[in-house]
Amino acid sequence: TQLLEQSPQFLSIQEGENLTVYCNSSSVFSSLQWYRQEPGEGPVLLVTVVTGGEVKKLKRLTFQFGDARKDSSLHITAAQPGDTGLYLCASSSNRNQFYFGTGTSLTVIP
Amino acid sequence: NAGVTQTPKFRILKIGQSMTLQCAQDMNHNYMYWYRQDPGMGLKLIYYSVGAGITDKGEVPNGYNVSRSTTEDFPLRLELAAPSQTSVYFCASSYLHPRSGVGEAFFGQGTRLTVV
Questions:
Q1: Could you tell me which of A8, A34, A93 has the C-alpha nearest to residue B45?
Q2: Mean per-residue pLDDT, A2-27
Q3: pLDDT tens readout for residues B34-64
């Protein structure tokens, strides 16, 4: 098991605000993934980061992999109600097992 | 493509009953997984499979069994259901990206199980 801690656990913000959620571990990862899960659905992959220091952008979402490959962050600019959901980071093992963090539940209020 | 299909979507079991949660994928993925998700929590890996005929325990396998007789199907069996098994169960499948070696997990819509 590769322990992934996410913060904050819950976040409620107004539409248009910016936010950052974090995924931290004491372990070094070859890659990290971010998934979003909407109520009543399974998680859906947003991005995979594989290189220390890597930054990836997906429209208003910016993902960063820490230089030491132990942590990652997700920054959302000008949040919209459609961004509401549970954000999960995940690591994968050498046997392609996925281990998920505890999640950040985001609510964007119109 | 339907992706990953789970049945049933909802089920209520009495303590001590047994049931099988069905999972099928049509993407020809070698890797398949069962997770459980408790309220406000992430997903815990129950069992996984790297191919037909091969299964391994994950983080929380006690009280569950799996089989993988074909690439497409990966049923999860609950024997002697207990209240602690009340949860939402997700099945997933994955491939390995040929260049990065990192897979992407595709999930079903989940089965909400209540044991009373």
A1: A93
A2: 94
A3: 999 998 778 999 999 999 999 999 999 999 9
For A1-110, where are the E strands, in sequence order? 5-7, 10-14, 19-24, 32-37, 44-49, 55-58, 61-65, 71-76, 85-92, 98-100, 104-109
Range B99-115 average pLDDT: 90
Q: What is the mean pLDDT of chain B?
A: 94
Chain A residue whose CA is closest to B100? A50
Q: What's the gap in Å between the CA of A40 and the closest CA on chain B?
A: 7
3-state secondary structure of B106: strand
The whole-number pLDDT of residue A2 equals: 60
CB-count exposure of residue A63 (10 Å: 0-12, 13-18, 19+): buried
Half-sphere exposure of B63 (CA within 13 A, CB side): 15
Residue given tokens 């459980």 in the structure block: B36
A37 Cβ neighbours under 8 A, 6+ residues apart: A43, A44, A85, A86, A87, A88, A103
CA-nearest residue to B94 within chain A is A96
- Tell me what pLDDT residue A107 has: 97
B92 contacts chain A (CB < 8 A): yes
Specify burial of residue A94 (Cβ count, 10 A radius: 0-12, 13-18, 19+). Answer: exposed
Structure tokens at A36: 């979003």
Show the tokens assigned to A31. Answer: 């890659």
